[in-house]
Write a structure and sequence with these properties.
The structure is a single chain. By secondary structure, this protein is α+β, with helices and mostly antiparallel strands. The protein is 58% helix and 15% strand. It has 13 helices and 13 strands. It has helices at 9-28, 33-63, 65-73, 76-113, 120-175, 179-193, 234-238, 292-323, 333-350, 364-371, 373-390, 414-429, 459-475, and strands spanning 198-204, 211-217, 227-228, 242-245, 262-270, 273-282, 354-361, 396-401, 404-410, 434-435, 438-439, 445-452, 481-483. The chain has a six-stranded antiparallel beta sheet with strand order 3-2-1-6-5-4. A five-stranded mixed beta sheet has the order 8-9-7-12-13, sandwiched between helices. Helix 13 links the parallel strand 12 (445-452) and strand 13 (481-483). The longest helix has 56 residues, at 120-175. It is elongated, with a radius of gyration of 37 Å. It starts with 8 loop residues before the first helix and ends with a strand.
Amino acid sequence: DTGTKDYLSPYTLALPKIVSDFAELDIIFTNHPEQQKNLQTLKKEVNNRIALADEIIATYDTHGQEAAFALVRKGVGKKEMDEIRHLINEMISTERFRLQNRRNITDEALQSTFYISGAGLAACFVIMGFVFYQIARENRLRGQTEDTLKHALSEMQTLSDENRNISHMAEYLQSCQTPDEAYKILEDLMPALFPASSGRISTFNNSRNLIESTLTWGGNADRNAGEFMPQECWALRRGQPHIYRRGGTEPICTHISESSASSLCLPMQAHGETIGLLHMASDDETAPLHAERPQRLAKRISEQASLAISNLKLQNKLLVQSTHDPLTRLFNRRYLETTLEREISRAKRSGQPLCVMVLDIDHFKKFNDTRGHDAGDALLVHFAKLLQAKTRKEDIVCRYGGEEFVVVLPGASPDIGLMLAEKLCAATREMDVMFNGVSLGMITVSIGIASYPQHGESQEDLISRADAALYMAKHGGRNQALLAA
């Protein structure tokens, strides 16, 4: 479920065109009962096909994509399209047959004229002129009929292709787990959908004062600015699509090149918020971006991409909030409990050791009471950065609660764990934390270390043994690291 039905607007706008085409055919076939009958049958089949499309869209909205795909796979739509094509071909054949009959009549009339003499010569020329007029008229009507039918079929085929491509893209976007995956899908699909164009998708930075490029496609994509301010784009200023064409009256956005024959900027909006910009440029005069089809297709792609990217960013934000401590940006206790269990299982399978360190900043409560909570928060943030800087990339650093931290060291033996803990004690003593321009003085930390499988084979045992070692370090004078007994 996309959460919006705006993507149906192009489909809805195409329906009146089909109605107008049928109205033209009604006029053309006014005096032809057989063709009128065929036309009514064709109308019925086209209406059935439109009704089926509406049913598939409604099923997609109500029951989801699998139910909609199930209707498509039944093949009813293909059968109806085959019937429509058959009727069109039959009507064209009928017109050709009628024309051939008239030509036969003409041939007979011409043959008869050779037997007319004298005064009948003038009448012969009149008859011939009338016959040729009828032939020209029938040819013209037949050509108009064929062109109208072909145009209607082409419009329906184009709309069907667009719906299939958009559905294909939406299916992949909805399966993405990160914005980067969605960008990669779009980067691969856009050149196929717009082969004569280049472009890029850009999104707001965290401060929302700059638009930054996230993906590009096409050979001329480097012409477009990779980073620019929102006010440089007329589409972002006005909150609606902006079209530029060489020689036109529309102003050009300052973030794009004037050398392009035409360009299109589309604000990417989702959930009432503008998240970025879809920009395309084309040097091909035969495929201008201000034409109806590229605008319609670009708008539908922008809607799908905006919704997918916005949802993925929201999911990532919620994931970070659920697994990270908001003050220190370290992993939180909930993440530790899930991850430590996984690391222990991995250590069991590989036969590798694993260390768990429990760290506690010495005299932190007293420090908080004398210096204030803001200074205490500054100390926690500084200490968290120290832990991240002094540990390995594969180590898991967590804030366990208050002034207590836990570090998981995959593949580390007890000796390596103790060595790292002693280095952390030394680095903490050398740490100079400034708050409001004043040094907070020397800070020390006590650390307890437990190792798998020596001190336990479950996360409860390892944390408990490391916590007991921390207790011994505290009572042994603090400012030290001890390995569990």
